């Protein structure tokens, strides 16, 4: 049950960018505003989860081919003060989610 809740919280956050922080790396910042919007839309629409890329069923990572490059997105779980890992990522009241979008070579 816990994994299902984590998956739902992650999907809701990723699809809306609401309920957490979205961070982008330097190479993503270097994209034009239009390209960034398109990449963000692809992250929001991502639904290609498999046992290979989502072994824990949390929907916390994805890989996207965009403009002939590979980009990753990753959701991490922090405590309420963003100092440590969350003690319970299934509990939204004590967890801050951070979605990072990066070029693959920045991972």
Features:
27% strand; four-stranded mixed β-sheet
Sheet with the most strands: spatial strand order: 1-4-3-2
List the domain count as a whole number. 1
Could you say which structural class the secondary elements and strand pairing correspond to? alpha+beta
**Approximate shape:** globular
- On the 0 to 100 scale, the average pLDDT is 97
Please give the alpha-carbon distance between the first and last residues: 30 Å
Strand content bin? 25-35%
Radius of gyration: 14 Å
- Poorly predicted residue ranges: none
- Count of helical stretches: 3
Share of helical residues: 25-40%
- Biggest sheet features: 4 strands, mixed
Strand tally is 4
Write the H/E string, N to C: HEHHEEE
Describe this structure in words.
This protein is α+β, with helices and mostly antiparallel strands and 107 residues long. It has one domain (2-106). Helices cover 30% and strands 27% of the residues. The protein contains three helices and four strands. The protein has a four-stranded mixed beta sheet. β2 (61-66) and β3 (69-78) form a beta hairpin. The N and C termini lie far apart (30 Å). The model has no long low-confidence stretch (mean pLDDT 97).
